[in-house]
Target: SDR family oxidoreductase
Amino acid sequence: MPKPVHPDRRPAVVTGASSGIGATTALTLAAAGYPVALGARRVEKLTELVEQIKADGGEAVAHPLDVTDQASVDAFAKAVTDDLGDIEVLVSNAGHVSPGIIHEVSTERFASEIDLNLLGAHRLVRAFVPGMLERQRGDVLFVSSDVAVRARPFMSSYAAGKWGLEGMAHAMQMELEGSGIRISIVRPGPTWSEMGTDWEDAAAADVLTGWIKFGLARHSHFLKPQALADAIANVVSQPRGIHLNLVEVNPEAPLEKK
Model:
């Protein structure tokens, strides 16, 4: 049976929680008092995070999650609700980017990336939003990317997926207005994470060269995942009556020498 929810108890789900922004967000929310449910395919990484959170006095559980698999999403939603009670906060963060020129990438690969970055978020919405509607309370936060407004070349389907994700989120904001559910977007600029670390050096160099060519890498500074985790925690912790619907976070440029 689901645990009864205290008015101040807000169980939170974080997907893509095995590394980077997701892992840091899980740690940050747990430190702020949220019971957190971690989901990702790399369960061994999640187990380490759960142990760290518990050692620091927080409450956390972890279950395997593949957002491209409906059965996995359904099983995850049931498991975390059984563990923590009704889910109050959903941070949809799972995503992946691979380098590639659009006309050279196979349609099958393009579709699989859209499935992960866009349809996966929709599967999570289907799993958790109906319960939030019944309770007239909830936060759904999508981790997007600045490619949604400033497309970057040589990243295959990533820009298309994030444009679609933000379109879905903005439509949901309108559809759910007055329901007690806040739909929000946090849009990171360039950020250090594991994303891109599996690319070949030549492919990574081509991507960065393209960014510079089109003015999309104005300086060398990148964000650390903590900056995004702090933004996410700030958005979902706002009291009722306040809706931070879109927050874009970018690295500050280095100081120019006088």
